[in-house]
Sequence to fold (227 residues):
Amino acid sequence: MNVGIIILCRYDSTRLPGKILKKIGAKTVLEYIYDRLSLVTGAQSIIVATSNEKNDDKIAEFCSNNDIKCYRGVNENVANRILTCAQENRFDYFIRINGDNVFPDPVLIDEMVGIAIEGGYDFVSNVKGRTFPIGMCVEILKTEFYKDIVGEFNDPSHFEHVTLYLYENGALNNAFFYTNETCPQASGMKLALDNEEDFVFLNSIVRKMKKPHTAYSLKEIYELSKN
Fold:
């Protein structure tokens, strides 16, 4: 079973331009994401999927200089970009990670990959119910299922927000929704990087870290945020 992680990101951001390459401590946001995803044992590839717009040349160049695979596709049609990336890399399943999710949890992702493969699910998500922090979202899709479902998209928002249609239209007959039972107190927390306030908050967490950031679980990150 060929499973790939796809990190969706753009350089442009209205609220925080260039956030994917901004540094938190000594590392860029993309390095934090990539380092943590590198610990996922259930995926064979990690690919950054950005657009073919000139603004995103910076991302492609950074990836090239750091031996990170990069795929470039259509700008506004993000659904097409992620699907084409998955198809060209022959992924049976792809794991969608947003480029503003600084601390993805590799243990969580491996558990969800196992559920997807063993259960033969089309879609496995930890988003429904928002039991995990914003910024720790994981969605795993069977590529053939997503190819079929994209043909039903009927609104521009479905192409921009690649799984919105699934939640809105109940096209989830073969889905599994993972809930946060290890650190439920973190459900209202925000770990996504959207604006300057988030940037300051995430920096404050990193400054408190006494071991490599990859060694921190959600519970430990939550505790750092409260101390």
Observations:
- The longest helix spans residues 106-119.
- The chain has a mean pLDDT of 96.
- The two ends are 42 Å apart (CA to CA).
- The chain has one domain: 3-226.
